[in-house]
Amino acid sequence: MKLKAMYSFLSDDLAAVEEELERTVRSEYGPLGEAALHLLQAGGKRIRPVFVLLSARFGHYDFERIKHVAVALELIHMASLVHDDVIDDADVRRGRPTIKARWSNRFAMYTGDYLFARSLERMAELESPRAHQVLAKTIVEVCRGEIEQIKDKYRFDQPLRTYLRRIRRKTALLIAASCQLGAFAAGAPEAVANRLYWFGHYVGMSFQITDDILDFTSTEEQLGKPAGSDLQQGNVTLPVLYALCDEQVRAKITAVNADTDAEEMAAVLAAIKQTDAIERSYALSDRYLEKALGLLNELPANEARTLLHDLALYIGKRDY
To answer: Domain 3-317, CATH 1.10.600.10 — does that match?
Structure first.
C-alpha cells in the first residue's frame, strides 16, 4: 500500500499542515522565503507530522492546537536537512539542487537557522513548558548528532555503538519527540505519551537503518541523489560497518574519498552488496521494529494504533 493511502483519513489535516508549512516559511525578506520554499516544495514523506497527528488521537484531538506541533517538528527536520547538505557538501536532494548548491553555504546555514526559529515560533503557540523542554532537548541532541557526524567522517574503525548513538541523535529522537509531543498536545495520559515516545524511538532507529541500506540498494531516480553518496561523503553507515568485516571488501571501502569517481564507486557498491552486510542490516532494523510493535500492544486499541502499526511496518520494509 502507498504511504499516503495508508493514512488517507488524515488527508484533510495533512493538507492543512502543508498549507501551514508554506505560510510559515514565507519571509518578508524574499530570498530567505524562496530558499525555504525551494526545499518544502521538493516534497518529502512528512512522516513526523503524521506521527504527531496519530499520537494526538490518544487524547483530545483538537487540530487547531495539534497543527502547531506538526508544523514545528517538520520545520526542525527541514532545518537539519539544510545543515546536513552543507556538512556533506551535497548538491542534490529529492532530485533538486540543494540550497547550498543553488545559493551558497552561508545562505544555506542561515536558511537552516531561519527554519529552526520558525519552528520555535510555532511551538510557542502551545502553552506547555514541558513540551518546550522536550523540544529544546531534542534540538540539542540533533545538533550533537550533526557534530558527531562531522567528527566521524571517513572513520572506518568506529564501533557499532558510535553509529547507533549518532542515528539516535540525528533521526530517532525527532520521531520519538513527534509521538510524545502529539500526545502531550492532546492531553493524553503520561503513561501513554511515554510509550509513544519509545515507540517513536525504535521506529526512528529502524527508519534510519533502512535509509542507510537504501543508499546501496536503490537507484539514483528513487533516491533523488546518486546511490552510494553517503559513503562517498564519508558517512560510515551500518551496511558499511558490516561489510568492513570482509577483508577484501575492506580495502576497497577504506580507499573511498570525496574524489572517488562514479565507476570506482559502482565497483565498491557491488562489492558491498556481495557480502552479507545488507541482510545483517535488515536484521537489526527488524529487531528495532519488533520492539516498537511490542510497545503498541500496551496502548489503547483504536484506529490510530492500527495505523501506527502499519506505518512502522511500511518504514521498515520500504524500498525508496
So the answer is: yes
